[in-house]
Amino acid sequence: MIDSCHRTIDYIRISLTDRCNLRCVYCMPEEGVAALAHDQILTYEEILRLCRCFAKLGIHKVKLTGGEPLVRKDVPYLIKQLKQIEGIDNITLTTNGILLKAQMEALAGAGIDGVNISLDTLDPQQFFRITRYECLDRVLEGLEEALRYPQVNVKINCVPMEGEARKDTVIRMAGMARDRNLPVRFIELMPIGLGKELHGYTEEALKMILSEAYGPLQHFEKPLGNGPCVYYTIDGFQGQIGFISAISHKFCDQCNRIRLTADGSLKNCLQFAGGVNLKKVMEQGITDADLVELIRETILKKPQGHEFGQKESDDREERNMSQIGG
Questions:
Q1: Cβ pair 53, 288 in contact under 8 A
Q2: CA separation (Å) from 62 to 50, 78, 200, 280?
Q3: Angle (CA) 54 255 10, round 5°
Q4: Strands (DSSP E) along the chain, which ranges?
Q5: Is-contact 240 233, C-beta < 8 A?
Q6: Measured distance CA(159)–CA(18) in Å, rounded
Q7: Which residues on adjacent β-strands are paired with residue 14?
Q8: Residue 20: other Cβ atoms inside 10 A
Q9: pLDDT of amino acid 164
Q10: What whole-number distance in Å separates Cα of residue 242 and Cα of residue 177?
Q11: How do residues 75-127 score in pLDDT, each as one tens digit?
Q12: Is residue 110 within 8 Å of residue 79, measured between CB atoms?
């Protein structure tokens, strides 16, 4: 559908759970957070009902997120059911990769179109400092398993942080795209929750590091995903290098997404807490027709853009990324 700022909204990110098996420093405190009770989380049947409503409004791309989505049972079942909804034509998933090796065959069999693996470093000690767990080998095994399925688009998502992402870290991460057709995307650290206390690299700094190491970056015109990532190629690379820079290269005028949290809140923008809890209205017996209209009215209130770096908003989001759906 078209929102009030004349943007086409065709993509939704759905958080399946607020639980995670890592404690990344920009996402969750070391002790974790109080998890939602099971009866507070959207059931798969509720998610499917909502996706049928989203599809009626022209939303045809779905990203499953968490927390860590694969800690929830029967994700392949949900994907298979989503693929059967008329109008939904692209289902992808973002994961930390720890459980991917064991589940990738089932995910591929269910028809998953793409898997994004969150990985910020190839150094085991850095990985431990960032995630607070020693399991880099499991993530890499999950990546190798995912790459066994050529019909599934696999990408790496990297959030480089000053103090952890040294030049050699950035160079090694980008180097994963050199010898195989594997896009590596550098995502700007978002000032949400714990991320407000950390500092990330700018896109310009990353480009300088990479051009010095590998040569000039050349703009890649072909779209490779559902969102705002801008891709580049480097001579001798099979894969692409991408940048998602929501702060330094604000792309709100092109934003095509909305978000659904694990407890059923429909969010129009990552920064703002406002929205409507669709789980609660479904439990009150709303009809599908009225549900579609409620979703339409909510999307029409999507703000023109975020206000990070400006005056603090009274409606700012206070939850951590794991609770929102990153």
A1: yes
A2: 12, 12, 28, 22
A3: 25
A4: 11-15, 61-65, 90-95, 114-118, 153-158, 184-187, 218-220, 230-233, 241-244, 257-260, 265-267, 276-277
A5: yes
A6: 20
A7: 64, 260
A8: 23
A9: 53
A10: 10
A11: 999 999 999 999 999 999 999 999 999 999 999 999 999 999 999 999 999 99
A12: yes
Q: What is the DSSP letter of 274?
A: -
Residue 111 neighbours by CB distance under 10 Å: 15
The dihedral over CA atoms of 311, 316, 319, 325, expressed in degrees to the nearest 10, equals: -110
- How far apart are alpha carbons 186 and 207 in whole angstroms? 10
Whether the CA torsion 7, 277, 80, 68 is positive or negative: it is: positive
Over residues 274-292, the pLDDT tens digits come to 679 999 999 999 999 999 9
Task: In whole angstroms, give the CA distance from residue 85 to residue 307.
Answer: 35
Cα separation, 149 vs 139, in Å, equals 16
Q: Distance between CA atoms of 127 and 106, rounded to whole angstroms? A: 27
The Cα–Cα gap between 217 and 221 comes to: 13
Distance, in Å, from the CA atom of 273 to the CA atom of 271, rounded to the nearest integer, reads: 7
Beta-strand relationship, 184-187 and 241-244: parallel
Q: Is 235 exposed, middle or buried (0-12, 13-18, 19+ CB in 10 A)?
A: exposed
Structure tokens given for 44? 């798969």
Residue 4 carries which side chain, given as an amino acid letter? S
CB 177 within 8 A of CB 183: yes
* Residue whose C-alpha is closest to residue 186's, from 106, 263, 128, 240: 240
